[in-house]
Specification:
Distance between the termini: 25 Å
Oligomer: single chain
Number of strands: 0
Largest sheet: none
Structural class: mainly alpha
Length: 233
């Protein structure tokens, strides 16, 4: 991935953690991607610890309640923002069990507010149908950073099924935010030749060629050859 694209991705992550528009971080436009990532992680860690004490008792109570009741409380009493903060403090098994009991659209709302380092437990064990519906809602909102964070935590078989949920533009815009770039090969292998042609066309039409080039770095020889063929067809 080019340094400029990597920097843009890290600025996007930092803006999301701070709750500001990327344009507000113009002063950091020349910073190195590695420094921006370290800053983002430091701020996220600080916010995590800052809110941990406020949820200690709530988390203790949640651990004693039936999962179905905890899910009802999360959805109807806490709302997505507070539920996202609380989910990051649950044990992974608790978080995964809770996520399975929440409606897909509410899960999408929770994901928008979640600490992206904690997203794994929120998707483990979810069916492809549920992930697909939540993913479609996030795509409609253009939550590229959130979607990119999920890619590394989705089972490979489920990821193959989910590829059909997203159009070429979404795949290209999510690409820079994927923390598990080895998954690009799985994604490309799930694309038909026709969809691969669409991806190449969208990259040209939307000026997203740099995003597509960044994916190529992580493709196997077979998938890279398919992409080359699509580019010259």
């Amino acid at each position: 991935m080019s340094r400029d694209l990597a920097r843009d991705a890290e600025l996007g992550r930092l803006a999301r953690v701070l709750g500001v528009e990327v344009e507000a971080l113009d002063v950091l436009a020349d910073a190195e991607p590695e420094d921006l990532r370290a800053l983002t992680q430091s701020i996220a860690e600080h916010l995590h610890h800052r809110h941990a004490g406020a949820f200690d008792r709530a988390i203790a109570v949640a651990g004693k309640l039936p999962s179905a009741m905890t899910a009802k409380l999360a959805q109807h009493a806490m709302g997505p923002a507070l539920s996202a903060r609380a989910a990051g403090l649950l044990e992974p098994k608790q978080a995964a069990d809770l996520a399975k009991r929440l409606p897909p659209l509410f899960l999408a709302d929770v994901a928008v507010h979640a600490d992206l380092r904690q997203v794994g437990p929120l998707v483990e064990g979810l069916s492809p149908d549920v992930m697909g519906e939540a993913g479609a809602a996030l795509r409609e909102r253009e939550e590229w950073i959130v979607l990119g964070a999920f890619v590394g935590h989705v089972d490979e078989d489920a990821l193959v099924e989910l590829v059909d949920v997203f159009d070429a533009e979404a795949l290209l815009r999510v690409g820079p935010f994927v923390d598990a770039p080895e998954r690009f090969d799985t994604i490309f292998s799930a694309l038909s030749d026709e969809r691969l042609d669409d991806l190449v066309g969208a990259a040209a039409d939307l000026d997203l060629g740099t995003q597509l080039d960044a994916m190529v770095e992580h493709l196997s020889d077979d998938q890279a050859a398919r992409l080359d063929a699509a580019r010259v067809s």
